[in-house]
Amino acid sequence: MQLTSRLALMNWLTSQGLTGLPENELLRGFCERCRAEGLELSRGLVVIDTLHPIYEGRGFRWSDRASNESDAFEYGSTAEGDAAQSWRRSVFFHLLEHGQDEMVIDLADAPSMDFSQIGELAEKGHKHYLAFVHRFGENGALGLMDCFYSCWTTRSPDGFGEEGLEALRDLVPVLGLAIKSAQQVDIARTLGRVYLGRDASEQVLRGRISRGVTERINAVLWYSDLRGSTGISESIGPDEIIPFLNDYAQAVIDAIHDAGGDVLKLIGDGVLAMFTGADMADSRRAALRAEHLSRKNVTALNARREAAGRPTTSAYIGLHVGEVFYGNIGSEDRLDFTVVGPTVNEVSRIASMSRSVDRELLASAEFYKGLDAAGRRYLVSTGRYALRGIGRAQDLYTLDPEVDASEPVTGSYERYLAN
Is the pLDDT of residue 391 over 80? Predict the structure, then answer.
C-alpha cells in the first residue's frame, strides 16, 4: 500500500472516529479500503476491554466471506472457567506475558502450535496471521481498558509481505484510537445509565451539569423499601447481605424499567423512581403496571430463595403525584441529578405508612383521583391518615383484595394495565 493510500485511510479513520461511526462500521470500512488498495485482508478481529457491570469487553469482526458470525459481540469475565483457559491459550495472552507487541504466524504451522483458534483459521483457508497488542499509557487506561488487541489474516499464499506488514503497523494504531474513542463514549453512557438512571444520564450527557439547573415537572413518584430488611440483615451472615439486597433490587428495578419508569436513587434498600409523560393518567397506569410486575418478580424470586433455604421478604410501595424540581443539586464539585420537593417527602411517608396499615401498596389521594374511571375501580380506600411531617391528612388507597383473590378480576386488571 502506497504512502498516499495510507494517509488517505488514516484521514478517513480520524474523520469517522470524530463523527462517532460505530466500531463495527469502522472495522468494516478499514478492511474494505485496505483490500481496495491491494492489501488482501481476509479477516479482521479487534477486541477492547471496557467498564460495564456485566461485560468485561467488546469485540468486532469482519470477514471477506459471508458467515453467521455477528460483527459485534460482548464477552464476560476471562478470569475463570472455559473462558480463562481459552484466554490463556490465545496469542494475545502470549504477547502480554512475554512483553511483545506483535506476532506473525504462517498458518501452515498451526498444527504444531497450541494457540486457540489458530487451527480453525487454517481450516477455513486463511494462510497467514498477524496479531497486535497496543498498550495504553497509565493516563490513557480506564479500568481494565488498557490495551487494544487486533488480529488479521490473509488468504494470499505469500502472506502479507513486508510492505503489507509495514502498512498495518502504521494503520492499526489509528484504527485503535478511533475505536478507543468510541468505547470511551460508550463507557460514559453506561456509567451514567447505571449510576444516575436512564433519563438523568441523558440529561447530564447533553450538558446539563451546572449546579442549580433544574426544571419543574409533574411526575408520578414511586418509593419502595423492603419489609423487615433490618432484622433479616442482622440474622444472616455479612457475606449474604449484599446478595440479598441485590436480588430484591433487581426484581423491583426490572419492573420499573419494564413499565417505562426511571430509577432516580437507591437509598439502602429503598428505591426512588418516577414516571413521566404528556398524559399523567398514562404515567399513573405505568406506575401501577410496575407495581404489578414487581409483585410478580418478587413472588418468583421468593420461590427461588425458599428453595435454596434463604430468607425472603417483600416490598412496601408508595405512589404519589405532584410537581417536583428535577435537576442538579449539591456542591460545585459533587452534584446529584435527582428530584426534590414536598412531593418527594410525601411519597416516602406514604411508603412508610404501608407498614402501619400492613399493605404492600399505598397510593395517595392525588394519585387515585387522576386515574381514569376504569383504574379507580381496582383501588379501595384504607382510611384517612395524617402523615408524619405533613400538615394535612388525606385518604390513602390500596389494591382491591379481589385483584388477587378472583381470577376474573385479576385478568381484568392485567388487561387494564396492558392497554
Answer: no
pLDDT of residue 80: 86
Whole-angstrom distance, CA of residue 396 vs CA of residue 292: 18
298-305 contacts, C-beta under 8 A, 24 or more apart: 298/248, 298/251, 298/252, 300/251, 301/247, 301/248, 301/250, 301/251, 305/247
| Rounded average pLDDT over 259-280 | 93
Say if residues 263 and 348 touch (Cβ distance below 8 Å).
Answer: no
pLDDT at 388 over 80: no
Residue type, 413: Y
Q: What is the pTM of this model?
A: 0.80
pLDDT in tens, 285-317: 999 999 999 999 999 999 999 999 999 999 999
* Number of Cβ within a 10 Å radius of residue 383: 9
Between CA 182 and CA 194 the distance in angstroms is 18
3-state secondary structure 267-323: ECCEEEEEECCCCHHHHHHHHHHHHHHHHHHHHHHHHHHHHCCCCCCCEEEEEEEEE
User: How many angstroms separate the CA atoms of 230 and 27, rounded?
Assistant: 52
Of 306, 318, 371, give the one whose Cα is nearest residue 345: 318
The confidence band for 148, taking pLDDT boundaries of 50, 70 and 90, is very high
Asked if residues 270 and 224 have their Cβ atoms less than 8 Å apart, the reply is yes
